[in-house]
Amino acid sequence: MRVAVAVGPGGGGLLCPLGDDGMPTGPAEEVADLAKAIAARERAQAPRWIWAATTRLYPPLLAAGVRVARCHDLELVESLLLAYQGRYGEPRSVRAALARLTGSPVPADPVAVPADAQPTLFDDLSDVPADPADTPPPGGAEPGGRGDAVRGRVGAGGGGPAGGLGAAEELAAVLAVYREQARRMAATEHADRLPLLAAAESAGGLVAAEMRHGGLPWRAEVHDALISDLLGPRPGPGMRPRKLQVLADRISAEFGRPVNPDSPAQLTKAFAAAGFSVPSTRAHVLREVDHPAVPALLEYKELVRLWTAHGWSWLDAWAERDGRFRPEYVVGGVVSGRWASNGGGALQIPKVLRRAVVADPGWKLVVADAAQLEPRVLAALAGDRAFASAAAHGDLYAALAHVFEQAGGPRAPAPHGTQDGGSRGGRDKAKIALLSAMYGGGTGDAVQLLGVLRQRFPQAYGYVEAAARDGEAGRLVRSRLGRTCPPPSPGWRDLVSGERGAAAMRSRGRFTRNFVVQATAAEWALALLATIRTHLADPAAVVFFQHDEVIVHTPAAAAEEVAGTIRAAAEEAGRLLFGRTQVVFPMEIAIVDCYADAK
DNA sequence: AACGGCAGCGCC
DNA sequence: AAAGGGCGCTGCCGTT
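Output (structure tokens, whole complex):
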């Protein structure tokens, strides 16, 4: 069962049931309260909702207390299909897709509206004024500030009517573009896979909106205590926290002159004056420099990072009064299909701050992490029997180390008594070899290990090698379900034939080599997330997702059950992508009160 | 004063 | 121990 949706003015809209062929089975129904109508149909039929963009449609539904199980997000799918066709970065809105279909001028995508300007009602495109002067920017933004974003959104309309689409036009566009997308998916050599990817991506859009709506539990007072302890009390405006000032003074004293530790240029000069020529002032470089300012400098770097990225201004901006952190997630924001985030650095929460992520009283956090996801994905992708059987159990790296040691013969005997079948050092080497194969590295020890990898696991090795060769030749590569890497940049072919062409060629090879694994891992994670979401019993909710890790916030009594749901979802994700495979995707799961207590 | 590139470092 | 892939965010610094 499928129902197409279009948004009208004043919270109303149009609903149109579709048959299996994607054609309407009857006339569209005009409804005065779209949220209410969708809620009723969701209860009765739980259809797949066909709509223009989850980012526009779903937040107001959530605000009205309405959740849906499934959708087809035309905008996200348009991106996937354009990429599949090698047409990266073209406008992906429904209006643009329709314009391509009808041969009319293609409007540029609207500039993203600021994250804090979320609509409280349905904003259909016809509500966007033709003249920005009609609408004062939210929050009374100063000229040249947020107002420009609003202007850009309207002005980007191109050939369409100035005010965008009315409900009837939007519905017509949704129907036409949906049918066209189905046709394009069916026409690919991955006709059975792209629809899976489309469904997973669309489900991702739903979870992303729900995660933003629900928020990650965040205890501002814990965060504050933590940074106050490390940095000293909150300083006045324009002042450094006390501990940073102490360190800065000590650094200057050790150099014998004032040095701004925030300035790489000043630091380089100061080191030069002291007789140390440093190529950069990165921490790992400075660690090797024998100068008395170094220890204070390293400590300063660590703390200043915490202060600037996650200090009190972060708390002011992001820790909401109801004890939640609500970042904006951007589904498919990374070309590999990983998510990006907008504001708050949601996908870069430092480990020390995980202390501030605490379950509500009577609730638990179920923190689940896919163990060694990318190498397992490679094993399943390549269909390498030997590699897959190494990945058929718990510790993949240990299993590989075992194989390596056998390959090495008497020269590298394994110490006895280790329970995982290989020495610690062997395991680390296996890990390095594998990461080198997937990332395109291969210096030092890794060269030799890569040779072993190639002999013992020719298909797995060959799989990433082939992806690298494709990239070096300027060709496209795809994930398991058909997500496609960008073509080389316009100047790339000239660059490659030029003087320093080899470097550019290898660089693209490393990118495509990694792409096939990273993008397939990302879609495995998407399938995991979607499956978890559909099997989660009501008050429990996914509150965080980061590449290969998911956190569910649940009433304590249901925590064990949630853990089971997650394990089952991991198996299901493997089946969805790879069918029958002996590769397993084990999850490391911790049931905790505080994120910092996981693993 | 505003903008963009870069350095540096946090996460996977 | 670092390197190899992907990001976001901040402050510095040169340019406009």
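The mean pLDDT of chain A is 84.
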